[in-house]
Amino acid sequence: MLAACGGSDSPVEASKSAASPKSTAKAASGNGSIFYGANGHNSNGGAYDFTSAQTQLSQLQDLGATIYRNDVYSQTSANMVAGVAKTMEDGGVTMYPVMLMNLNYNSEDDAYAAGFALGQQTANSYRYKYYEVGNELEAKALIGNVDGTAWYQYDNWSYMLARGVIRGLIAGVKSVDGSAKIIVGGTWMHTAFFQMLADGSQPDGTWGHPAVSWDITSWHWYSNEGDITHACGGTGCHDVLQMLHDMGKPIWINEFGVRPDFGSYDQIATYMTGNLMMAQFASVASKYNIQSIQAFQLYDDGEGAYGLLEGDGTTKKPAYSAYKDFVQNHPM
User: Fold this and answer.
1) Inter-axis angle of helices 75-90 and 108-125, to 10 degrees?
2) How many CB atoms lie within 10 A of CB 305?
3) What pairs with residue 216 in β-bridges?
4) How far is CA 130 from CA 118, 244, 252, in A?
5) Which helix H or strand E contains 185, and what residues bound it?
6) What is the CB neighbour count within 10 angstroms for residue 32?
7) How far apart are CA 92 and CA 57, in angstroms?
């Protein structure tokens, strides 16, 4: 039910130099679309370490993917991702960071300060168009194995720390780049967390707290979660896309994937492009204002065998061809 992109909060050893300002190159499709994309882990080692940015770009271009999401969690990782971003942008692929943080703070003010620092470092490393603040932080604030559709299903203290991190990240980015587009999001049915962020309430039932505003609501969806328009849990069945659409922001499904234990490579490829994933997302995009869907992920790595290619960065899996064929046959 939960798969973080990246997830490591520890720095990595290697560093690449920060890139020059963002290119204005259009998307490879020629129409500026960012509908089809992928996740990468250029700050987390594995195939991403020994596969050049140019090779990754060529693979994304071949797939028809025009947006690329990558982890940032420190100054070092920010520089590493920035070092790839210029190549991507020049090749027509929009790259953007997802800033990873935990909730190990003593107060909301401390969480805010830490978030501000990382947001500022990330925006200073490269001028992106989009910045994602936090990765499934709402899941860290749940009181247990609950749906997350109601305010009382969150721990108040953890919620406050998560709100501090998110507010700090946004402020840090905006201190460098006032035009930055902010992405906030979660997974499964954890929608009440974001409703509280927006209206200034919190799980203890009080109101009047700092409200958070953002530009795009992102969401994660995996094969074990079933139909995103009819997701069922302890609180009943919900159209998650409608719940997100009701928040009034464009939607990005910026992690979608099939669990590695789902079946054979061919079965995984069929499910990924089928009626509960890519085919469904594309068919309802206009109804729910879905602007982008991003496969998890480009290469197999420490997160598991989720890749469109194997961990050698070269061998294409059936999901690669299935993704490529779907994009060619369903231009968005």
Assistant:
1) 40
2) 16
3) 183
4) 15, 19, 12
5) strand 181-187
6) 10
7) 9
Residues 307 and 319: their CA atoms lie apart, in Å, by: 8
The full DSSP string for 279-303 is HHHHHTHHHHTEEEEEES-SB-BTT
Q: Are strands 231-233 and 236-238 parallel, antiparallel or unpaired?
A: antiparallel
Residue ranges in the chain modelled with pLDDT below 70: 1-30
**Burial class, 137, CB count within 10 angstroms (exposed 0-12 / middle 13-18 / buried 19+):** buried
d(CA 272, CA 278): 6
> In angstroms, what CA-CA distances link 276 with 36, 113, 284, 291, 325?
16, 40, 11, 17, 17
Q: Which of 274, 247, 246, 251 is nearest to 262 (CA)?
A: 274
Give residue for tokens 């369903």: 330
CATH superfamily for 36-329 is Glycosidases (3.20.20.80)
Which DSSP string do the residues of 77-97 spell out, in sequence order?
HHHHHHHHHHHHHHTT-EEEE
Residue type, 173: V
CA distances from 199 to 102, 109, 151 (A): 23, 19, 12
Whether the model clears a pTM of 0.85, i.e. scores above it, the answer is yes
Find the largest Cα–Cα distance for the chain.
53
Q: Which are the contacts of 58, defined by CB distance < 8 A and separation ≥ 6? A: none
- In the numeric block, the tokens 């305010």 are attached to 151
**What's the chain's Rg over C-alpha atoms?**
19
User: Which one-letter amino acid corresponds to residue 197?
Assistant: L
What is the distance between the alpha carbons of residues 191 and 84, in angstroms, rounded to a whole number? 33
> 154 - beta bridge partners?
142
Cα gap 332→113, rounded to integer Å: 40
Phi, psi of 29 (to 5 degrees): -70, -15
Length of the chain: 332
Helix (H, G, I), strand (E, B) or coil at 7: coil
Quote the crossing angle between the two packed helices 53-63 and 318-329, to the nearest 10°.
50
What is the rounded CA–CA span in Å between residue 141 and residue 231?
21
